[in-house]
Write a structure and sequence with these properties.
Layout: E1 2-4, H1 15-24, E2 30-34, E3 42-45, E4 48-51, E5 75-77, E6 80-83
Parallel strand pairs: 1-2, 2-4
Antiparallel strand pairs: 3-4, 5-6
Length: 84
């Protein structure tokens, strides 16, 4: 799932976002979020995972905090997340 969620410029997910993640992981193996424009934690639990936000690959704002991002490479095999 590619989720547009979270607060702009936040460095950590909110409690509400974590609760939504728990609900979405019942349907999906991995959730990749975006919207905060800042890199946030990547969480792996029970062969499922969440990348709350990867930050920015490119953004037109001239703010130092927004010039960082993460790359995520996932490997899957049938119905199961293998590794990040």
């Amino acid at each position: 799932l590619y989720a547009h969620w979270g607060m702009e410029f936040a460095h950590y997910p909110s409690v509400e976002q974590k609760n939504l993640r728990d609900d979405k992981l019942k349907q999906f193996h991995f959730v990749v979020g975006h919207h905060s424009h800042t890199p946030q934690p990547i969480d792996l639990q029970n062969q499922k995972g969440t990348a709350y936000s990867l930050g920015n690959l490119y953004i037109y704002f001239n703010k130092p905090m927004l010039k960082k991002g993460k790359l995520l490479k996932l490997y899957f095999r049938k119905n199961k997340l293998c590794r990040v």
